[in-house]
Amino acid sequence: QVQLVESGGGLVQPGGSLRLSCAASGGMFSTYTMGWYRQAPGKQRELVARITPGGGTAIYVDSVKGRFTISRDNAKNTLYLQMSSLKPEDTAVYYCNTVVQGIWPWGQGTQVTVSS
User: Fold this and answer.
1) What pLDDT, in 10s, does the model give residues 2-14?
2) Distance of alpha carbon 95 from its chain centroid, rounded?
């Protein structure tokens, strides 16, 4: 069974930066389009960035475009999300998973809080 372990979250001031990591144990990580999702309190989980298996194409939701960068290292089975110019509305628990739902179980996520 694949396990997804997210890390790198924390408390940051508006305008700050964070780099999230997601380590996948087992599974065929390099064959899947992967995504970063987030869930804010009282809201549904949303997909904010996705990247193709080879890393050649990345797509972002408009609210993070130009501020977030998704990348992956298939040799390390690891997905990254570089976040900059963070805003209070970016506060959420961030998760990684395949874009096609239901393949792998969700990890515990990593909390990102943007506040002064």
Assistant:
1) 999 999 999 999 9
2) 5
